[in-house]
Amino acid sequence: xxxxxxxxxxxxxxxxxxxxxxxxxxxxxxxxxxxxxxxxxxxxxxxxxxxxxxxxxxxxxxxxxxxxxxxxxxxxxxxxxxxxxxxxxxxxxxxxxxxxxxxxxxxxxxxxxxxxxxxxxxxxxxxxxxxxxxxxxxxxxxxxxxxxxxxxxxxxxxxxxxxxxxxxxxxxxxxxxxxxxxxxxxxxxxxxxxxxxxxxxxxxxxxxxxxxxxxxxxxxxxxxxxxxxxxxxxxxxxxxxxxx
Length: 244
Description:
This protein is an alpha+beta fold. Helix content is 20%, strand content 29%. A hairpin with a 2-residue loop joins β2 (31-33) and β3 (36-38). The mean pLDDT is 90.
């Protein structure tokens, strides 16, 4: 028989919510295990049990905002750095993209607990996801995330077939092998990278290892969600019909 596991850990692993959120739901009696309400923190359960959230918890999750931002150069994706502003400061009423398809209007409550789900370097542009939803954060940046991220990367320098093959598979950073990537020429001076991981300054460091210098880097897709025509410095809500 399998060893019992902490309920909050199991809820996080199943993508129901983050562990912190699970503890809050358990405390409020909003979690059912095999049809039985559980309200004691630290409860251990069978790893194969059925878990259901109360309707109140599900409704609360549905109200959490996920925002797509076209980050410009010069903004940091996470914590503020001296002389630079975090990208979240761009989430304002006047910067919401009015494309005629907006499904909701900006509300200041959506800034509370809003955090980037992944990084985008200060000198990089493109699609940055910020979310209040722990399920989406885990989907995009959890240890077992398998979501593709696509980048257009302008480079200078010479790249032979061997170097291109190494970019696809065979490079290591910080003593750890990189996961296989899909890298190919988009045009004469631009490469297309499709990665399933996001180490710090990964693409720039990969390019340096094969003798290239990155001149410009833009993320254009995360999973099934594309940057599209979203203008630089503007943002929009993830629509109900969109999924990563």
